[in-house]
Structure prediction request, 35 residues.
Amino acid sequence: FMDGGRIVETAEPGTFFSSPSTDRAREFLSKILAH
Prediction:
């Protein structure tokens, strides 16, 4: 997952979507998965 041009999280897709490890990734996913 990139934020501001920096890689802030690396994970397998299943792990990223089910259990993101950074607050920024959780915020992003909550916004896009709500639609």
User: Anything to note?
Assistant: The radius of gyration is 9 Å. DSSP finds two helices and two strands in the chain.
